[in-house]
Amino acid sequence: MTLAVAVVAAVTTVAHPAAAATGDGSPSDSNIRYFGRWDTRSPGAYVPGWTGAYAVVGFTGTTVKLRQRGSVDLYASLDGDAWASYKNVSGTVNLTPARLPPGTHTLRVAYRQDAGSYHGDEVFQGGSLDSGAHTVAVTVPSRIIEFVGDSITAGYKASKEALTAYGWVAAEKLGAAHTEIARPSVCLYPASGCIGMRDRYFKTGLDTSTPDWDFSRYQVSDVVINLGTNDRAHSVTGAQFQGAYVTLLQRIRAKYPNATIHAMEIFKQWYATETKAAVAARNGAGDGKVRYVSTEGWIDPATDTADGTHPNDAGHRKIAARLAAVIG
């Protein structure tokens, strides 16, 4: 029997093309819950966009295998156990060399990234179960938190990239699903040589060739924005940054009418005045669910980062603890 499992990043239910029967494990099997942004135009091959996209599925039987189109690095977790790493795997990937006990099990899968790009061919094509086994719908959190950022949010320099980054850790601490709209080397303002999230946030993936994201697939409870670390190096002025921030906040509000939007002060404290002003502008326009988050003192660059900028695992855990307390 075929089984389709996907990859890891936000509690969301996406619309699937009508093709597969529920329980057969193909990518369009409605028992599979996809998190983050997925390009689902091909019913037999789903492609994750941005960072940290993941999927969750329940299944019966004692074995589970993935079918990968090409060589890729991935992570898998069975029944809530620690994430296991599978490097440079392709074809049929056996996730259960030792059989599981009979019963119903839960699988989570996420593809590994390297500097924000998926490491290999992240196209998901399905998998296989025991003869007579089938997928099962699993209970997932109703709350979804979306994190918007650059390499820090994407988990660059963290041991498992997005899986050990502050957004992932904070959301899981709160028992929420999560999606990370983040990649290294992005700005807020679309400066020369730097992709601007003011506009690119609304795509399914980083590349302009990906379709516009269909925001009807899910609604989030919170949006956390951490942008600005790369803008200074691209000579973005304070006025440009503030204007872009106001625009992004307006556009996100149009897509998520009920979400609380948290604008984080970046850890280097650059553009703090402009970020506060953008929040104040939205508050003054009647949007009281946009909030500024001061991050001063959250981490020590000397001990909590790998290079003075990108948090290490301990730094991400510290950020996640402080952020979870803010989001609540």
Walk me through the topology.
Elements: E1 2-3, E2 7-8, E3 33-35, E4 38-42, E5 45-48, E6 54-60, E7 64-78, E8 84-94, E9 104-111, E10 113-114, E11 117-118, E12 124-129, E13 135-136, E14 144-149, H1 151-154, H2 166-173, E15 177-182, E16 186-187, E17 195-196, H3 197-200, E18 222-226, H4 238-255, E19 260-264, H5 272-284, E20 290-293, H6 301-304, H7 313-327
Shape: globular
- Mean pLDDT, all residues: 90
- The percent range for strand residues is 25-35%
Secondary-structure element series: EEEEEEEEEEEEEEHHEEEHEHEHEHH
Helix content: 10-25%
Radius of gyration: 20 Å
Largest sheet: 9 strands, antiparallel
**Structural class by helix and strand composition:** alpha/beta
- Total strands: the figure is 20
Q: Can you count the helices?
A: 7
**Cα-to-Cα separation, first versus last residue:** 42 Å
How would you explain this protein's 3D organization?
- This protein has 328 residues and is an alpha/beta fold.
- The protein has seven helices and 20 strands.
- The strands form five sheets. Strands 1, 2, 3, 6, 7, 8, 9, 12 and 13 form a nine-stranded antiparallel sheet that branches.
- Helix 2 (166-173) packs across helix 7 (313-327) and helix 4 crosses helix 5 (272-284).
- The chain is globular.
- The relative contact order is 0.14.
